[in-house]
């Protein structure tokens, strides 16, 4: 009979959970992430907003949006965090620099997901007097941001449980 190291298995479970949360965040690029609308300040008219998925917010859509590097950077940061979490789950030991990197990356990505409406690059900068363009985040960006923040917290749990975060 082999003896199972429960602490090692539980640590891997936290890393796998963080990886799964990151994958859910990346999959949110196929859901409606941002919307563009317009409001008229003088006539109190609200125009019907246009909704865009995460892919359209990153790579642009015909006639409305251009390529947005900051939205692409958000997904690249999440993918880099997934790679580091896989390395940590596979048993990479004695590398203290990698302990806090997933938390930092996923926190930055979570904040970037909540700012994805700000990072939109419109095709034309048509400015009409009295009409304000509104940029809002929708379900996909909000869920992806929450998943990234939860994944960051989940990735730090093994470090807290091991007691390596304390100064000696």
- CATH top level? Mainly Alpha
Structural class: alpha+beta
Unreliable sequence segments: none
Task: Kindly report the spatial arrangement of strands forming the biggest sheet.
Answer: 2-1-3
Approximately how much helix is present in the residues? 40-55%
Distance between the termini: 38 Å
Q: Give the beta-strand count.
A: 3
Task: Note the total helix count.
Answer: 5
CATH topology: Butyryl-CoA Dehydrogenase, subunit A, domain 3
Word description of this protein:
This protein is α+β, with helices and mostly antiparallel strands. The chain has one domain (about 5-160): Butyryl-CoA Dehydrogenase, subunit A, domain 3 (Up-down Bundle). It is built from five helices and three strands; from the N terminus they run H-E-E-H-H-H-E-H. A three-stranded antiparallel beta sheet has the order 2-1-3. Helix 1 (about 5-25) runs antiparallel to helix 5, helix 3 (about 70-90) runs antiparallel to helix 4 and helix 4 (about 100-115) runs antiparallel to helix 5 (about 140-160). The chain is elongated. The model has no long low-confidence stretch (mean pLDDT about 80).
Relevant terms:
single chain, 168 residues, alpha+beta, Butyryl-CoA Dehydrogenase, subunit A, domain 3, 52% helix
Task: Provide a short characterization of the protein structure.
By secondary structure, this protein is of the alpha+beta class. It has a single domain, classed as Butyryl-CoA Dehydrogenase, subunit A, domain 3 (Up-down Bundle), CATH 1.20.140. It contains 5 helices and 3 strands, in the order H-E-E-H-H-H-E-H.
């Amino acid at each position: 009979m082999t003896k199972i190291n429960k602490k090692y298995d539980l640590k891997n479970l936290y890393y796998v959970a963080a990886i799964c949360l990151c994958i859910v965040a990346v999959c949110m690029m196929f859901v409606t992430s941002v919307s563009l609308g317009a409001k008229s300040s003088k006539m109190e008219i609200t125009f019907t907003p246009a909704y865009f998925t995460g892919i359209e917010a990153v790579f642009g859509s015909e006639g409305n949006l251009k390529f947005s590097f900051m939205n692409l950077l958000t997904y690249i940061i999440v993918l880099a965090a997934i790679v580091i979490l896989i390395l940590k789950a596979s048993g990479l030991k004695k590398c203290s620099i990698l302990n806090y990197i997933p938390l930092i990356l996923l926190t930055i990505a979570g904040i970037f997901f909540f700012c994805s409406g700000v990072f939109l690059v419109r095709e034309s900068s048509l400015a009409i007097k009295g009409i304000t363009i509104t940029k809002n985040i929708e379900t996909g960006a909000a869920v992806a941001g929450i998943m990234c923040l939860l994944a960051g917290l989940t990735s730090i749990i093994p470090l807290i449980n091991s007691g390596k975060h304390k100064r000696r």
